[in-house]
Amino acid sequence: LTRIMANNKSIVIDYDKINYKEEINEHIHKIPEYTREYVRDLFPIAQWIHKYNLTWLIADLIAGITVGIVVVPQSMGYAKIAQLPPQYGLYSSFVGVCIYCFFATSKDITIGPTAVMSLLIGQTITHLTSSNISYTGPEIASALALFGGIIAVFIGLVRLGIVVDFIPNPAIAGFMTGSAITISIGQWPNLFGIKSVNTQDSAYLVFGHFFKALPETKVDVAFGLIGLLWLYGVRFGAGVLTRRYPKYERTFFFLNIMRNGILVIFGTLIAYLINIGKSTSPISILKTVPAGFQAMGAPKVEIPLLQAIAPSLPSVVLILILEHVAIAKSFGRINDYRINPNQEIIALGVANVIGSFFGAYPNTGSFSRTAIKARSGVRTPIAGIFSGCVVVLALYALTPAFYYIPSAVLAAVIIHAVSDLVSGPKFVKQLWHINPLELFTFVAAVIITFFTTVEYGIYSSVGLSIVILLIRIARPRYSVLGRIPINANEKNTSETQYLYVPETHPSLGRLVEPVSRGVLVFRFDEALTYPNSSFVADRIIEQVRERTRRGKPAAANKGDRPWNDTSNAKDDELSLSKPRLAAVVIDFATVNNIDSTGIQTLLDVQGALNKYADRNVQWHFANINSPFIRNALLTGGFGTQTVSQPGEILPVVPASRDGPKRDNGIEEVNGERDVEEAIADEDQKHNIHEEHRLSNDSQLTALPGFPVDKYPFFHWNLEEAVRTASAAAVSINQED
Hints:
mainly alpha, SLC26A/SulP_dom, SLC26A/SulP_fam, transmembrane, STAS_dom, 736 residues, membrane
């Protein structure tokens, strides 16, 4: 083909016919191969564990211990947000980081308690316990982890991870930002030692009640505010020093990571010294944290409990999957590797199912700890096991020291951690410039989460995203194309070449000239399927009626006109200067799919335009890049277009034997059409006219050296389609 094109010749090319039976048989024969790949993908660790070496071990050990130091105080703080005793945060941290490595496709991500999930679990437990349910908070949390994990495993096994692709990043950022703001406001009373404020209320209520209760501030505020000052000061200082002394970047990084641990250690020491000799503590402290895994056992599974948690399960599963996959994809892009979303969902589900037997509540990927793990130089998911060892050490050896951890210090750690989840002004500004509708989704999710709960924030952001997606599919952008000559002033060119752009192009519109009289060129920026087919039909007919005239004037007698004909004599007189429609060209470059409703819509429009123009209007298709789309168009009869008034190819209501016969252009057998017979019939009709077409110089208007499609109405590029349609229009107009 390249050699022929280089010799400035044309070649007639035809796609091979699509044989769906062969396609199906081929896939059936590959089932054993698919099965082997499926089983192998379930355990990604088997593909790299045999290459594990000492270099990887050292890097994973450093990263794992670093994350473990961070996760211990964070997990206890998140457990308090979830309305659970602090040890349940440690249980969740241990199981997540240890189990994940066996199923992981991401080396960076760290599973464990997160701020958003903890807030959702806390709101669910508060709601259920307030309704006098006979189950405790830990029992509710473990049941949510068990059934949420089972659902996640099912989604991953049946490869439904594609559902996460329907939720855009702004929607995820919206409810995460709203949740982060809600969590921060909810920690203000703990930061100031105020106990009269219910932190499980909506954020706006907590905000108002907090300022009302400010006179109740205790000495805890010293721990909280100084802790925040320390955390942000170290973070800012490490950044400044890293830029000034880049060769010590790794040293400053680890000093920066240690800021949480240092704050907790010194805060605990000061709280211990304050409480020496006192029967009651003057500040709020963590108090007793049981050593070891005290909650191990089968989670309670009872029908009343399942009925109680069922309304919250969808939101739990959504957060599990969305937050985790979004973080995994992000760090995969940053560190140049690809993750398998379905396998990640399986790993997440298995971690939660097994974690429920340790007393864990639902856990998912953590952004802050994943970032720390990546920056620490992690090499494989094995690093999670070392983080789990740090958690076990804390559970069995350090629990006596946890007694004196100030609640205000944990509040400072939480506020500092969730600040990374807030999308700032730069994000909002960029989103406004990219897509204002997505900004609306983001803002709506933040506001709804702030004034209600995180559950409603999730549902609203997901719902709005789906609505916007459906609107975009159902109402695609379209344009009538004009052309701009791009080599009209060149002396050595035999023919003028054109650039085809929308007639309403904001910057090039003044340079656009229309194509030949009686020819309209359309482009639709979406697949042609059942949600948008009627819209596409209306737009084509609307533009044709606006730019062309009838084939024959409307009846002078109003009684002879159709009931829905709103034209009058004046309209007919004004339209005399307009051309009569001869051809329609559709650029299929942006059409990646077409279904039976789309084909039927094109046939309906074809029949309507033939009646309007009182002639057989030619339909030319350019840039058909998919053989499946081409196959569908051939089935609809667009390859030869020998029928003036096409009928229904897939009638919703079967034709009555007593009624008028439908003219499909292809014979029907027992009222049904066979696709292969339809295409074969198209080939037969094509072959009859092929010799005449190739001998007619006015019809063979392909660009020199460019291939010609076997069918006269299919074209490999838009320029060829317009030239062919224009030549046909000239010929038809001369005949008229």
